[in-house]
Design brief:
The complex is a heterodimer of chains A (467) and B (1033). Chain A has 467 residues and is of the alpha+beta class. Chain A is built from 15 helices and 19 strands. In chain A, α11 packs across α12 (210-219) and α13 runs antiparallel to α14 (302-313). Chain B has a 7-stranded mixed sheet with strand order 1-2-3-4-5-6-7. The chains are: A alpha+beta (467), B alpha/beta (1033).
Chain lengths: 467, 1033
């Protein structure tokens, strides 16, 4: 006996759970299906405007101008499914995932534990219904039949005879047949699964192929299915797309709190602790801001990580508004053994972080950076400071640039300099507020030092020193 | 005072125009004009492996002092950049042949060249070599180049104030010392002025598929790739190198005016001149057209035309077209010529057009104008199913070396410009799609910029948003790539690639030249337009049906003219399927204009166009025609132009002529005006003429109001204006198709149905229209149908015309296999599915036939037939051998609604009852008026109706209103939905298939509309769930 749980809008429910305010506007997930963008999941407000799954996205926008659109990701949805499974794993060991939207629970092995078939069903179905996600449940002799019934939304029955009737009542297009078999069956006037099941097996195979025959036999329990049972994952990963871009840390607190709450639940259920988690903040254009949060001692309480993160926030400027948050915890430790893990691979990293903390303590939080370059043609724009500890990436064919850039450039007088090479003309940056129109020279001062100087608006400036 | 050391001469020998797609922000004419302003001696446009921009550049240089040089650049990784210049006509031919060769090695839009290609076949060109100093062995390569190119080789140095300038300069001087080759310098221009830098950066980002925000490195460092002033150049380069550019330019003597188009000579018999031959063919034709004797007036006219043709040496052009139509006639391919020159007596006698010029006395103004020096315009339409035969004939006769299609330059339009600029500025695709979906570029009241600013003030007020607005506008009109012209062939006397490079088109086996229609016109080169027209296919099929049924020899030319019954039918808007006047707008005009003569049809076709509608010419014309408004003319000159259209300009020619007689435009200026009209909307060239036109008219005593109205009308005409000559040719086909519909409806519909896809209407709509005209249809059956629809002989004394549906109507069958199977069909027909398989049909064909209920005579109803058709044969599946002898299962027959649904799915139409007929008694349709009864309603009456939505049309001319066509079992009705109603009922307005409408009927001059007030979506009824009975349980 199998209990199948179908979560028809898992991704949507998951994001509403993590960010309830996103539900105050019409919201929909879209996906490219054969080169057309269509809606796949939408909330109640969107439904009210006439938005429906399978509607073209362009049409959906026409129907509902305020519609918030997010791209559907089956990986994300599967992640959410994994989490649900991890939670249910506390009560049922034999779980099979049907990603991205379903899972099946084997009930027979639970009968003893929960006092018979009904007891097992009651406990598990209650646990599922307590989850903050929309679900459709069904029970059947085999997981495939249970899956079809749940996906179609048939009523639940524990009686075998009733289940068989419900199965027979399923329309052909909801019977899990291949598209070809569906097409052929419909063209011959079959409308319900039961009509096909009444046919002799030989005729089904002859008319609709072996695959269909096998499918029908599995549904009727005549052929066994093989199952891969679920094992809980060894790491925690949760992402949250933000409906609106959030420009400052303060606005991130609530969603972060929820994410850490998720982590806490996860760790608690698994009886695990972690020493370090990683918060990744995605931006539209800039590379993601990655903030490691390390506890002095491994722990599991979300609030501990969050308060530590709150302490760090001030020192970490957000280069751009945040569009997505990811919380990752990779190295799960058994709650009772964590003391052994203090040294080893983490040691070096730990030292670096300690050094940075010390430097920051001494020089001020905003005075410690890692240098990096991007390909912006404008001096002063291409040299960027990244949060400390990040590795710089190399730029190929880079022209000669001073190691020490002065920021801002200093006013200077041409009389102090002897021009050596140039000019290199920089007249660009129209696309944002930083337009420049400068002629750069490499020049020598009376001490023989090489400086990078430029002329702009009737004035000479020193941009930096060559080593 | 200028000191002797000031530079006063420079020739730019390396510049790219925007015909090096996405690599330059400058139009070729921008570069020429700017270089001239800066005092350059000469400029070479050297687009990458292309000469697509040179004609425009040459045109600009003609009126200026500056010398224009033709060249092209090529990039080779191992070498750097090579620029070839064409100093003479022969060198130009070599260059074109090389470009053709490089292009022929690659797919459309690309080229392939290697260093070895530059060691032969270019004996007369100049080569400028801009080495890539990062490469090794430059000296060895240089030596090799020098050994071949000798004095025609230069090293090219360019400086754009980059960090590595000095390094490159030293490398260049070293290379020069080693090779002893002269050095010259150039600007490598990709923009005309500094102002083009942002657009240039955007193009770079577009080319890389990235954004400037993401990759600021895609932007240029500075604007030094512009055309720089002489003093700036002097600071940049050694004097000697500058002087060398001028020395090179001085040696370049080739001018595009030297290009002479040599026509194919083989069309003229030995011992005759082209003129004599054309005259003879015309005279022969005249005797054929006027068997009773050629009227003297006709003879006088063709002699006049022939002398005009002779003066311009256009004979070979007429002979070429004559040759094509002669071939078409021999093959039985229907065709019709149109265009200003087509509606001439010569063309009538040559059989190029069937429009008797006697019917249109006034068309000769645009025939051939010496003054305007514009090549004659003849387009020939051929049957769309058989045009390929004509194209193949051209290739066969002249060879691929001598014939190629003209190019069409695909330019940025609003949608593409908005998207690409937006992406380059870092907007996401989704954001842009969202903004764009709310913009209506056809809104005349509010520009799209204003709309965006209103809807999204935050965007319009941001820096990035302002850039989006500004640069979208700038990018519009910039070329994106070359495509093939729909059918304009250029045919040369010998090798075409000596005249212009030829490159691959995206269609296999097609080649295009690098010039478009305007370029050809500018150079006075002729192209032959070989176009495809669906109606000609349909007409040929109609003629064949009538001729074989009644044993006649009817042709388009012998169809009785000016038949009053034909016009009576048209006046009632019964025009579905008729050429050019079957659209809804045309149908609405028919009862108002009430055409009575051929010329009325000419006007009817031209008047229902955005041009006359936007220029507000329709209502004045109708009022005057109905005698409700006096016809007056401000002067006799104006009267002479507008008299035939009651004082209202309707045709493009009239507008041109008005500019000449009323505003004093010369022929040349009027021609420029015509060109500006043609491209109005893409650029603002038309406004240039505003002052001249209005002042010209005021000076001649016309009132300000009249002058302004005329200018507004010209703007309205824009690219939509219709020349009278085209309208006349179309009117001819419209009349002929109407004649068939009036007198031989069965042949008419069969001809159309067998020529689909074409025209406005689906097979379903045509079949219903046919049924309303008394034609009966029988369903398709593998044992009774042909591939095509088939007009059945009448049985006994019955007056009913019957047509058997063709198997062509069934979706998913293969034409070749079905025709092959039909050829094998014996007299008693196929008796089993097994036989169908044996005849070569595949399972997919058989299954499609079953779904369409076309196996009735073999296997019973569609369910039964389908179940049989998918049965796997025993050989394929030995596993099920034991069920071999089981009798076929009796499956229940489909319900009527199931049949209707399946009919629509497999053939797109049903011969059973209309779905609305099945639903007529359902409570939702209670009190709904049927389409056919609308005309009996009182105008202003409130009523309800329901129907399938077959057309949603939002005309560009009247914003805010949408026309819906609803279809029920009795016919079609027209529903007008105003913007506020559409908004209020947005969901059902946009998505409903079966729509219920409550509204007010308006009946005016026989035109019936329902103005919608309430809408309801009844689509769910179409599932017929309540009508179906359940089986099995």
């Amino acid at each position: 006996m199998w209990l199948y749980c179908h979560f028809p809008q898992l991704l949507l429910d998951n994001r509403v759970r993590l960010q309830p305010e996103s539900n105050t506007l019409p919201l929909a997930f879209y996906q490219l299906q054969s080169s057309q963008s269509v809606i796949v999941q939408c909330n109640a407000l969107a439904l009210e405007c006439g938005v429906r799954p399978q509607l073209q996205t362009v049409m959906a926008i026409s129907l509902c101008e305020q519609l918030q659109l997010m791209e559907y990701s089956s990986e994300r949805e599967e992640q959410a499914l994994q989490q649900l499974a991890s939670y249910l794993y506390q009560w049922a060991a034999k779980l099979v995932l049907y990603p991205p939207q379903g899972l099946a629970i084997e009930l027979n092995s639970l009968e003893q534990l929960y006092g018979g078939r009904n007891g097992a069903f009651n406990v598990l179905s209650q646990k599922v219904q307590e989850l903050p996600v929309t679900s459709q449940l069904a029970v059947a002799d085999n997981s495939l039949a249970a899956q079809l019934l749940a996906e179609f939304g048939s009523p639940v029955s524990l009686l075998a005879e009733k289940q068989a009737n419900l199965l027979a009542e399923l329309p052909i297009q909801n019977a899990g047949l291949s598209l070809k078999a569906q097409k052929h069956s419909k063209a011959a006037g079959f409308r319900l699964l039961g009509e096909l099941m009444q046919l002799p097996g030989g005729e089904v195979g002859r008319q609709l192929g072996l695959e269909t025959l096998l499918h029908l036999e599995q549904l009727q329990g005549l052929k066994q299915q093989s199952h891969h049972f679920f094992m809980p994952p060894e790491s925690f990963q949760q992402s949250l797309d933000l409906v609106t871009e959030i420009p400052h840390w303060q606005g991130l607190l609530f969603p972060l709190k929820r994410l850490f709450g998720e982590l806490e639940n996860f760790l608690y259920q698994r009886q695990k602790v972690v020493q370090q988690v990683k918060v990744e903040l995605q931006h539209r254009n800039e590379p993601p801001s990655v903030v490691p949060v390390a506890l002095a001692e491994p722990g599991w309480r979300g609030s501990n990580f969050l308060s530590l993160l709150q302490l760090k926030m001030e020192s970490i400027p957000l280069p751009e508004p945040v569009i997505e948050i990811r919380l990752v915890a990779n190295e799960l430790l058994r709650a009772e053994q964590h003391n052994e893990q203090f040294f080893g691979a983490q040691q070096h990293r730990h030292e670096t972080l300690q050094l940075i903390s010390r430097l920051q303590a001494k020089l001020g939080k905003n005075a410690v950076f890692s240098p990096a370059v991007n390909d912006d043609p404008r001096p002063g724009y291409s040299e960027v400071a990244r949060p400390p500890g990040e590795k710089p990436h190399a730029v190929l064919n880079a022209p000669k640039r001073p190691l020490w850039m002065l920021r801002p450039a200093q006013v200077t007088s041409i009389d102090l300099w002897q021009l050596q090479h140039g000019p290199e003309r920089k007249h660009c940056g129209w696309w944002d507020a930083g337009e420049v129109a400068r002629d750069y020279w490499i020049a020598k001062d009376k001490f023989g030092r090489l400086g990078w100087i430029y002329f702009e608006s009737d004035q000479w400036y020193l941009q930096g020193w060559f080593s | 005072m200028s000191s002797p050391s000031v530079l006063n001469k420079f020739a730019e020998l390396h510049s790219l125009s925007h015909y090096s797609f996405l690599q330059s922000a400058a139009a070729p004419e921008d570069l020429v004009i700017r270089a001239d302003e800066l005092g350059y001696t000469a400029i070479a446009i050297t687009d990458e492996c292309s000469v697509a921009g040179i004609v425009k550049a040459y045109q600009a240089s003609k009126e200026r002092r500056i010398k224009f040089i033709v060249g092209s650049e090529f990039r080779l990784p191992e070498l750097g950049t090579i620029i070839l210049l064409a100093p003479t006509r022969e060198a130009y031919a070599q260059l074109c042949k090389k470009i053709t060769l490089f292009r022929s090695r690659s797919e459309k839009g690309h080229y392939q060249a290697s260093i070895d290609d530059f060691f032969n076949g270019l004996s007369l060109c100049f080569l400028l070599w801009q080495p890539d100093f990062r490469q090794a062995q430059l000296i060895a390569i240089g030596e090799k180049l020098k050994s071949v190119w000798k004095q025609r080789l230069w090293l090219l140095y360019e400086r754009h104030y980059q960090a590595d300038d000095e390094k490159n300069f030293h490398a260049m001087t070293e290379l020069q010392r080693a090779l002893k080759v002269k050095v010259t310098c150039a600007g490598g221009a990709r923009m005309a002025t500094t102002e083009q830098q942002p657009l240039y950066d955007i193009l770079n980002a577009i080319a890389q598929g990235s954004s400037l925000a993401e990759q600021p490195g895609l932007a240029s460092n500075n604007a030094e790739h512009r055309l720089r002033s002489l003093s700036e150049l002097q600071q940049c380069y050694p004097e000697k190198w500058l002087a060398e550019s001028v020395a090179i330019a001085d040696q370049c003597q080739f001018c595009l005016s030297e290009l002479r188009y040599e026509y194919p000579a083989e069309l003229v018999p030995d011992g005759m001149s082209a003129a004599e031959h054309l005259k003879q063919l015309t005279e022969d034709g005249a005797r054929w057209r006027y068997p009773e004797g050629v009227p003297p007036s006709v003879k006088a006219l063709y002699l006049k035309e022939l002398s005009l043709i002779k003066e311009q040496s256009y004979e070979p052009f007429f002979l070429t077209i004559h040759d094509l139509v002669r071939f078409a006639r021999k093959q039985g391919i229907l065709f019709q010529g149109r265009g200003s020159a087509a509606n001439s007596v010569v063309c009538y006698c040559l059989g190029i057009t069937a429009v008797n010029p006697a019917q249109i006395q006034v068309l000769f103004e645009r025939f051939i104008s010496k003054e305007r020096n514009e090549p004659p315009d003849i387009d020939v339409d051929f049957e769309h199913e058989r045009r390929e035969e004509i194209i193949q004939y051209i290739y066969r006769k002249y060879g691929r070396q001598r014939a190629a299609l003209a190019a069409t330059v695909i330019t940025y339009r609003f949608k593409s410009a908005f998207r690409d600029v937006g992406k380059a500025l870092g907007f996401s695709e989704q954001q842009l799609q969202y903004y764009r979906s709310h913009l209506d570029t056809r809104d005349k009241e509010q520009s799209w910029q204003q709309q965006l600013a209103q809807q999204h003030p935050e965007v319009a007020n941001s820096v990035r948003g302002r850039h989006l607005l500004h640069f979208t506008e700038q990018l519009m009109g910039t070329p994106r790539h070359l495509s093939q012209h729909v059918g304009g062939f250029v045919i040369a006397a010998d090798d075409l690639s000596r005249l212009v490079p030829v490159e691959n088109a995206s269609m296999t086996e097609r080649t295009v030249i690098q010039w478009d229609k305007t370029d050809l016109e500018s150079l006075g080169l002729l192209k032959v337009d070989v176009l495809a027209l669906g109606m000609l296919t349909a007409l040929r099929k109609m003629l064949a049906l009538i001729n074989s049924r009644y044993d006649q020899q009817l042709t388009i030319a012998t169809i009785p003219q000016e038949d009053s019954r034909v016009y009576q039918q048209l006046q009632t808007a019964d025009s579905m399927g008729i050429f050019q006047i079957e659209s809804r707008a045309q149908m609405n005009m028919l009862p108002r204009l009430k055409p009575r003569t051929f010329y009325d049809l000419v006007i009817q076709i031209a008047i229902v166009r955005p041009g006359p509608i936007q220029g507000d010419m329709v209502h004045p014309f109708l009022r005057r025609r109905a005698g409700l408004e006096a016809v007056d003319y401000p002067s006799d000159e104006v009267k002479s132009v507008l008299e035939r259209t009651l004082g209202v300009p309707i045709f493009q020619e009239q507008v041109i002529k008005l500019a000449m007689v009323a505003a004093g435009f010369s022929g040349g200026e009027a021609d420029q005006l015509r060109r500006a009209m043609a491209s109005w909307g893409q650029n603002g060239h038309l406004t240039r003429f505003e002052d001249k036109l209005i002042n010209g008219m005021l000076a001649r005593g016309y009132k300000q109001e009249f002058a302004e109205r005329l200018f507004k009308q010209i703007c309205g005409f824009g690219q939509y204006g219709f020349p009278e000559s085209h309208s006349a040719s179309f009117a001819n086909l419209a009349y002929v198709s109407s004649w068939f519909k009036t007198y031989h409806p069965a042949a008419f519909y069969v001809g159309l149905l067998n020529s689909l896809p074409m025209g406005f209407y689906s097979a379903s709509q045509l079949v219903q229209d046919a049924q309303r005209h008394g034609v009966e249809f029988l369903s398709a059956d593998i044992n009774l149908s042909h591939w095509d629809y088939h007009w059945l002989p009448k049985e006994g004394t019955s007056s009913v015309e019957t047509v058997r549906m063709g198997l062509r109507q069934i979706q998913g069958v293969s034409e070749t296999r079905i025709i092959q199977a039909l050829n094998e069909r014996r007299e008693k027909g196929f008796t089993s599915i097994h036989e169908l398989r044996q005849s070569g049909l595949r399972d997919s064909d058989i299954s499609a036939l079953a779904r369409a209920d076309a196996l009735q005579s073999i296997a019973g109803h569609r369910h039964q037939a389908h179940w049989q058709s998918i049965s796997i044969s025993d050989q394929q599946m030995p596993l099920f051998a034991n069920v071999k002898d089981q009798p076929a299962r009796e499956l229940p027959a489909p319900h009527e609604s199931e049949n209707i649904k399946a009919d629509y799915e497999s053939t797109g139409l049903t011969l059973g009852r209309h779905p609305l007929a099945l639903l007529r008694n359902s409570p939702e349709l209670k009190n709904c008026v049927m389409a056919k009864d609308l005309i009996t309603c009182r105008s202003g009456q409130v009523l309800t109706l329901a129907g399938l939505v077959t057309c949603r049309q939002r005309p560009g001319t009247r914003s805010g209103v949408t026309f819906l066509t609803l279809e029920d079992e009795s016919g079609n009705s027209n529903v007008v939905v105003w913007a506020h109603t559409a908004r209020q009922f947005r969901q059902c307005f946009l998505t409903s298939n079966l729509l219920w409408v409550k509204g007010i009927v308006e009946i005016h001059e026989g035109v019936v509309h329902v103005i919608a007030g309430r809408l309801k979506d009844l689509s769910s009824l179409l599932s017929f769930s309540r009508l179906e009975s359940r089986r099995f349980h």
